[in-house]
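>> received
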Amino acid sequence: MECGIVGLPDSGKTSLFQALTAHAVEIDTLKPNIAQADIPNPRLTEIREFIPTRKIVPARLDLEKPVSDRFMELAEVKFR
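>> returned
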């Protein structure tokens, strides 16, 4: 599953991104921050008791935090 985090400036987008992915965020970059977060599901281990499997593969969420608007404004001014 893919998801993008959008919102008003200083609304906690970076904090949410870091909390979900345990991924350090580069603030001053022109590239969006992209990371993956596994979604734990305790039911998978219960299912494994009845259906033997080699490994358990949890669902994965691909998160993208776009470049901040404020940084884009600064970059436009700087590179003009």
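>> The chain has a mean pLDDT of 77.
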